[in-house]
Design goal:
heterodimer; A: alpha+beta; Double Stranded RNA Binding Domain; 8 strands; flat; B: about 750 residues; alpha/beta; Alpha-Beta Plaits; Rossmann fold; about 30% helix; globular; NADH dehydrogenase [ubiquinone] iron-sulfur protein 4, mitochondrial (chain A); NADH_UbQ_FeS_4_mit-like (chain A); NDUFS4-like_sf (chain A)
Chain lengths: ~170, ~750
């Protein structure tokens, strides 16, 4: 990744800033570790604040393709087939699939094979902030899907028998 | 996150009672309007819920899990499974928490020995007649009975009847829902859903006690476009999905949360895939859009993704297509563009129904770079600038928003049948119609909606008469005049109609007359219901022709997912490129076909009819050599020598932000202020002043709900639905129900 690309990203990130309020795109600054060219001037320049995020990628030696693939941070919704709300409290981080044929069917048995080593990886976090922080540390592009608030009105058994002033509109066949 | 609120999502009937009391008549309700909150103790934890909540809701709010079979958040309370028993202090018996209102100061115990014993008793009775066929049952792995019996079931049976377990004949509900009625535990969720939400009153119960059965009384399929939801609702394996039967187990599936583009509602879905295949599609709960329901087309059209796919670029040689590499295909297009001699407006781009926002933006940018404004939509009269214009967003969006449909107290439907154009939205209208004294007026071709309406006429003249106020007095008219939140729902087919200008002129007059009620800072009742997923986005980015361009005869045509195009409208000497995922009509017309991705294979933005941008997600990779759509256009732009200035998805979204920030503000609807909305309406009125009305009747744009796009046309399940429901024929499965059934158990 060239320095130029990092600059493009930085401007892009600035432009994106207004949409951070709702759903967030983020791009890990993988090149933050590269020092900016020092200006020769007599003015006193305030020291840059130290960023808390050290991108793991700079030192981990992980394959660089990881960085080019967005991750998504979201709260999985309840399976509509079941009434139990299990696993919907935690925030999940997982990887978008690779474009192009990262998966194929084994012609002998029909098993699915994959060249994508991140497909089996799913990370789970207690909070959205934890997940974002982790993605930033890794230097991954991320998209945060805002949580949906479930709105259930108060329900009452007696509503089945409430008097309606107008013509009857439902035949209950229960 | 759960929030129990008092006003949204279900119109309460106490509103009516309040009104009755105001008019001086005695209220029959014994309870007052619910506004206060009450506090009670659940398992030693204090919890505050709105008055009028069921006890089970209070327990849930306190974080206690209550097992249940019949209770469902979005259906009426039945109280017949008795699984949700809890202990309440000073109550002699355990109480069913779903049918019991939460009382202030009550002390509730959900985990006491008494509760356990009671639930174990209920479970034993349920299991006594439930077949032990979990290994061959499709519900296995996501079965509520299975889950709850792990906690409350016994490991041995006391059931020793010589006659064996209860056996019930299977019902035939059509090609979508498979029944094994022996497994039924009579929770009646399906019956309540059919009654309240889907509006199918044929599904009901007969008999009582051990002989109670769920069925349609006479042999009849369940004709509803929401019928697939009863599969989700069924807590056991009595109702399962027929197309998905024995295909996969839930633990094998990888689920991806995404958005559905088969109609303009933008239902949230969960795509369950295994390997390279989409195995099923489930709804994802979102109270702002689809609640918990999706239409049958959304749910079952996925098998169309396996058939008729374009997997490799094709170049026409003579009268047949020859497979080519991407390089050759793109070069062929560049050559074709040069050979056709097309320049500026002679280059035409047509946006189809399933085109995603990213590719629309890229295609518009490419056409503009080639000096063309000839950007047209794949619909009747799509080559003309739209009559409502695209300068003001509220002129073509569903401004009232989908959840607020329930707040409307009078609805006028103009040239639309929401049941087929937005099935999930239709269920909200029905909900409101059932629970409030809502009145509905209807102008257009008569349709079988799931609610009663007053027919006001079938053409633009009827609307004109209605606006001028010369209609006979009726229940709807009285309601309309008194309505605080009136709602006009204008169908998307209106702008395709020959009388479009006249209709929009009349509508703008109506809005002007009623602007104190129709367009206020809180409420915008002028709502256009789009029916295809790409339309709102196309209008948002200005994918419309200029007046000069719409007169130009094209020499080079780029069809982006355009499969409804009239072949006669394409000049025989034009060079045609089709980009899309299915070999449907558009591909037949093309000189070069470029294989794109279907909605399950790309993570793109979809703007629904409210103007709500939602980001989909790829679940499986596209087959063969097909690529993501905007990338194809980006690649082509290099070859034709007008490269686009973005090379990855984030840069493209920055470009979308430049065009309109609402395209990348995901999951929210941006309201147009009432002043601008009225200015937009005024602009329509000025533009259409003096428009003549021909008086041709409005036609339903969707004659067959099950086959509206290349995916559903390629789907076998949708073809069976067409036979069974649209044509009313035998769809090929009924014979099996006449043959002898194997006697299990």
């Amino acid at each position: 990744m060239s320095l130029l690309r990092a600059c493009v990203q930085a401007t892009a990130a600035c432009k994106r800033a207004p949409l951070q309020c709702v759903s967030t795109f983020g791009r890990g600054m993988a090149n933050d570790s590269i020092p900016a060219p020092k200006k020769e001037s007599s003015e006193i320049v305030a020291p840059e604040p130290v960023r808390e995020v050290l991108v793991a990628d700079a030192i981990s030696g992980a394959p660089s393709q990881l960085r080019h693939r967005p991750v998504r941070i979201y709260q999985p919704t309840r399976n509509t087939m079941q009434s139990g709300p299990g696993k919907s409290e935690r925030w999940r981080l997982d990887f978008d699939i690779l474009p192009g044929g990262s998966r194929w069917e084994n012609p002998l048995m029909g098993y699915a094979s994959s060249a994508d080593y991140m497909q089996g990886t799913r990370l789970s976090f207690r909070s959205k902030e934890d997940a974002i922080h982790f993605a930033e540390k890794q230097g991954w592009d991320y998209f945060v899907q805002p949580e949906a608030t479930k709105r259930i009105p108060p329900k009452n058994y007696s509503e089945n028998f409430v008097y309606k002033p107008h013509k009857l509109r439902i035949m209950r066949t229960k | 996150m759960l929030r129990i609120v008092s006003s949204v999502s279900r119109p309460s009937s106490t509103g009516i009672l309040g009104k009755v009391a105001n008019t001086g008549r005695r209220s029959l309700a014994s309870s007052s309007a619910r506004n206060a909150d009450i506090t009670l103790t659940v398992d030693g934890k204090e919890v505050t819920v709105p008055q009028g909540s069921a006890l089970i809701q209070a327990c849930e709010a306190a974080g206690a899990t209550i097992p249940r079979f019949c209770y469902h958040d979005r259906l009426a309370i039945a109280g017949n499974c008795r699984m949700c028993l809890v202990e309440v202090e000073r109550s002699p018996k355990p109480v069913a928490s779903c049918a019991m209102p939460a009382m202030p100061g009550a002390k509730v115990f959900t985990n006491s020995p008494l509760v356990h014993e009671a639930r174990e008793g209920v479970m034993e009775f349920l299991l006594a007649n439930h077949p032990l066929d979990c290994p061959i049952c499709d519900q296995g792995g996501e079965c509520d009975l299975q889950d709850q019996s792990m906690r409350y079931g016994s490991d041995r049976s006391r059931f020793h009847e010589i006659t064996g377990k209860r056996a019930v004949e299977n019902k035939d509900l059509g090609p979508l829902v498979k029944t094994s009625m022996t497994r039924c535990i009579q929770c009646t969720r399906c019956v309540r859903f059919a009654n309240e939400v889907a509006g199918v009153e044929e599904l009901g119960t007969t008999g009582r006690g051990n002989d109670m059965q769920i069925g349609t009384y006479v042999e009849k399929t369940m004709d509803s476009e929401l019928s697939g939801n009863i599969v989700d609702l069924c807590p056991v394996g009595a109702l399962t999905s027929k197309p998905y039967a024995y295909n996969a187990r839930p633990w094998e599936l990888k689920s991806t949360e995404s958005v559905d583009p088969l109609d303009a509602v933008g239902s949230n879905i969960r795509i369950d895939s295994r390997g390279v295949q989409v195995m099923r599609i489930q709804p994802k709960t979102n109270d702002d859009v689809n609640e918990e329901w999706i239409s049958d087309k959304t749910r079952y059209a996925y098998d169309g993704l396996k058939f008729q796919r374009l997997t490799t670029p094709l170049v026409k040689q003579g009268d047949r297509f020859v497979a080519a590499t991407w390089e050759d295909a793109l070069t062929a297009i560049a050559d074709g563009l040069a050979a056709s001699g097309a320049s500026s407006n002679e280059i035409q781009a047509i946006a189809g129904h399933l085109a995603d926002t990213e590719s629309l933006v890229a295609l518009k940018d490419l056409a503009n770079r080639l000096n063309s404004d000839n950007l047209i939509l794949d619909q009747t009269n799509g080559h003309l600038p739209p009559v409502h214009g695209v300068d003001v967003r509220s002129n073509y969006l569903f401004n009232a928003t989908i959840p607020s449909v329930e707040e409307a107290d009078a609805i006028l439907l103009v040239g639309t049948n929401p049941r087929h154009e937005a099935a999930v939205l239709n269920s909200r209208i029905r909900k409101s119609w059932l629970h409030t004294p809502l009145e509905i007026g209807f102008i257009g071709e008569r349709a079988d909606t799931t609610y009663g309406y007053e027919f006001l006429g079938a053409d633009a003249n009827a609307l004109e008469t209605f606006v001028s106020g010369k209609v006979a007095d009726s229940a709807f008219l009285r309601k309309w005049k008194a309505a605080k939140k009136p709602l006009v729902i204008v169908g998307s087919a209106i702008s395709e109609h020959p009388d479009a200008a006249g209709v929009y002129n009349a509508l703008s007059k109506l809005v002007e007359q009623e602007k104190s009620r129709l367009v206020t800072p809180e409420w915008n009742g002028f709502s256009v219901l789009q029916r295809v997923a790409s339309r709102a986005a196309a209008y948002d980015i200005g994918f419309t022709p200029s007046r000069a361009a719409s007169q130009t005869k094209p020499k080079f045509i780029y069809l982006l997912n355009a499969d409804e195009v009239d072949p006669k409208s394409i000049p025989s000497d034009a060079f045609v490129v089709y980009q899309g995922h299915h070999g449907d009509l558009g591909a037949q017309l093309a000189d070069v076909c470029l294989p794109g991705s279907a909605y399950t294979e790309k993570g793109t933005t979809w703007v629904n009819t409210e103007g709500r941008a939602q980001l989909g997600r790829a679940a499986v990779s596209p087959p063969g050599a097909s690529r993501e759509d905007w990338k194809i256009i980006r690649a082509l732009s290099e070859v034709v020598g007008a490269p686009l200035p973005y090379s990855d998805a984030l840069e493209l979204r920055d470009r979308m932000w430049e065009i309109s920030p609402s395209l990348v503000r995901y999951d929210v609807t941006e309201k147009t202020s009432s002043g601008i909305a009225l200015a937009g309406i005024n602009a329509i009125r000025e533009r259409t002043a003096g428009a003549k009305i021909g008086g041709a009747a409005f036609k339903k744009p969707i004659t067959n709900f099950y086959q509206t796009d290349p995916i559903s046309r390629a789907s076998v399940t949708m073809a069976q639905c067409t036979r069974a429901f649209t044509k009313g024929e035998n769809y090929g499965f009924s014979e099996s129900s006449q043959t002898e059934q194997a006697a299990f158990a």
